[in-house]
Specification:
Strand content: over 45%
Mean pLDDT: 93
Number of strands: 5
Low-confidence stretches: none
Number of helices: 0
Structural class: mainly beta
Shape: globular
Strand order of the largest sheet: 1-2-3-5-4
Length: 81
């Protein structure tokens, strides 16, 4: 089964080798027929501590590394590029 890949914004890098990433999604509400925004935070493993708060990164599903970390950082676009 392929691993899920998502793109989001880093909101915290205070933990060692961990980045907290906010994933935003939009969908059409089934009853109200309005566009609704929802977001969710994921803890991602960041081996080299390369993630910087505010930058967009890509994360991929991986086997559990801890209680909360089941994602890993695979690409970083850079905040100031």
């Amino acid at each position: 089964m392929p691993k899920r890949v998502m793109e989001g914004v880093v909101v915290s890098t205070k933990q060692d080798k961990t980045a907290v990433v906010r994933i935003d999604r939009t969908f059409l509400h089934p009853v109200l027929k309005k566009i609704v925004r929802r977001s969710k935070k994921y803890h991602a493993h960041d081996e080299g501590n390369v993630a910087v708060e505010g930058e967009r990164i890509t994360i991929r599903e991986c086997p559990p590394r801890s209680k909360l970390k089941t994602w890993e950082v695979i690409a970083s676009e850079g905040a100031d590029s």
